[in-house]
Write a structure and sequence with these properties.
alpha+beta, 19% strand
Length: 273
């Protein structure tokens, strides 16, 4: 079984446990900059930062505006009477209230970059095709800030990835590999959302994926990076005929499955090297 590289798995772990001094277990929230339309800012402020960049921005905002969540050295200084679980909840609320988090393509981009650097010696961020050179300024910005421009739509381009399977057609899903992408285009209530899942591992009968997302059922403060699995209960069937489970929820209670079901395009793609 092909696995994600050690460095890629560390990136995933760090998003599930943001690197704060003196506090463990803070899961990175979801943040989609498209809803704020901020341009030209640091990627830690627009849903594209590394775990370290997000933690650093939290420290800066806390000290600059005297929120008393972190001190100038980055140590958590939430009220001493709070237990660890309460401190984690306080920090997550602080991150969300200050628009600090990661979006789905930012999360996947940072994991894939480390994976292919370690396994193939290739920086895929420098090889991705964003805009044609004739559109010089957009092309230049994408070259200078590749992660900020590695959107789901860019990941779905044939120039960047090869289509492995159509999610609505029969396929031997045991052939999927770690680092493959499940692409969902034009989904959600208004059919305007694009989303990507990263396949973390595939045992042949169970595909495990990870992603950054916001479920409506989780309200304002429950969202963030998450893991789920697809059990291959109907070999040879399409991807939606398999058993999807995330956070103990399946079927229509699993909002990731609902997004896959409602997507105009559902494909599995692999990075082109």
């Amino acid at each position: 079984m092909i696995m994600l590289s050690a460095r890629a798995e560390k990136v995933i772990r760090d998003y599930f446990n943001l690197p704060f001094e003196g506090l463990t277990g803070v899961r990175c929230p979801y943040f989609n900059n498209a809803r704020r339309n901020r341009r030209g800012q640091l990627r830690g402020l627009i849903g594209k930062g590394t775990p370290e960049e997000i933690a650093e921005e939290a420290r800066i905002i806390s000290t600059q505006y005297r929120h008393n969540i972190f001190d100038k050295d980055g140590h958590c200084c939430v009220h001493a009477t709070h237990n660890d679980e309460e401190k984690i909840e306080d920090v997550r609320k602080f991150l969300i209230d200050n628009d600090l988090g990661i979006d789905c393509s930012g999360f996947v981009s940072h994991v894939l970059i480390e994976h292919y650097k370690e396994t193939r010696g290739v920086d895929i961020a420098r090889r991705f095709h964003f805009w044609p050179i004739k559109n010089f300024w957009r092309w230049l910005v994408a070259r200078l800030r590749p992660v900020e421009n590695m959107s789901v739509r860019v990941m779905a381009k044939d120039a960047n990835t090869n289509k492995i399977a159509d999610g609505r057609s029969g396929f031997d899903w045991s052939r999927l590999e770690s680092a493959d992408l499940v692409i969902m285009m034009e989904t959600g209530p208004n059919k305007k959302r694009n989303h990507v899942l990263l396949i973390e591992d595939n045992e042949g009968s169970v595909i495990r994926y990870t992603h950054a997302r916001a479920w409506s059922a989780e309200g304002k403060y429950g969202h963030g990076v998450a893991r789920g699995e697809i059990r291959l209960t109907k070999p040879g069937g399409n991807l939606l005929e398999q058993a999807w489970e995330e956070l103990g929820r399946a079927g229509e209670d699993n909002e990731t499955f609902l997004e896959a079901t409602g997507a105009k395009l559902l494909e599995v793609r692999r990075i082109r090297i």
